[in-house]
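Let's practice the habit of predicting before peeking. Look at the sequence and jot down your guess about where helices and strands might fall. Then scroll down.
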Amino acid sequence: MKDLLRTEDLSRADVELLLDTAADFAKNPLRSTDALANKSVAIYMTKSSTRTRLASETAVAHLGGHPMFLRGEDLQIGRGETIADTARVISGFASALIVRTFAQSDVDELGKWATIPVINALTDDDHPTQLLADWLTIREVFGSDISGRKFTYIGDGNNMANAWMTMGAILGAHVVVATPGGKWAPNPLAITTAEKIAKGSGAKIEVLTDPQAAAKDSSVLYSDVWMSMGDSESVRTEKLAALAPYAITQELMNLTTTDSIFMHCLPAHRGEEVAAEVIDGPKSVVWREAYHRRTTIQAILYHLNRGELTGNI
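Done guessing? Here is the structure:
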């Protein structure tokens, strides 16, 4: 496996390996400072970022490498140079490429033409690095045995909803996604992909429209912002009205298990998708979750550069 382009690319063995290594990096961030010694990693972002940029640059540095942060206007790709040519050039200078952009097809094409590992750090369709951080946090709280537990995402049927189903399917979990129907529902292809993976892993995938039914007896309630980067402002009023019943309130948290946690990939809008008393309350693990963006990206870089991920073959 050369690249991590989509969550579905990972096998369960890959995920377990990455989580184990990330847990080690959480305890000792500088345990492998020679892994990228005298090497550079290009970090190309066309979307604004706080956690992904900080996590990526720190992960590279902790592995002994040099992070090179690039925006679209920094490269000739902003003036019409092709993705293929850009991938070839970057491959001559860097040992890996981390990409955060809009179109999944751009990341796929970079992976096709680059001779170095390409890592998807967010697209409009998927967010594999976030899901690894999420599940490392879940494992820290509940351990590796997730039998009998229910893991629920509530809100917009966006890239996080897609990735939540896929990663849950890979790990054999009972995962639920609750969104409005219609245009704010998850991508049907993502549902199909997750259900296909679930047949082999024993996972249970549920897609609901009732947030109370989704929250009941859940071990995790997960949310994301309702207006994502790239969403047109022209749909704001309609979208917020449709999603209002899906806000994570204390009343919704009260339907969950006694040991439940609240998760969010951040940034958060208190008073919209989550109440302040929830995200700032005792069940919230969002800061530990954000911390693990670094540990998991560090693990991805470490194992991809060593050729130790097999992929979901």
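How did you do? The chain has a mean pLDDT of 96.
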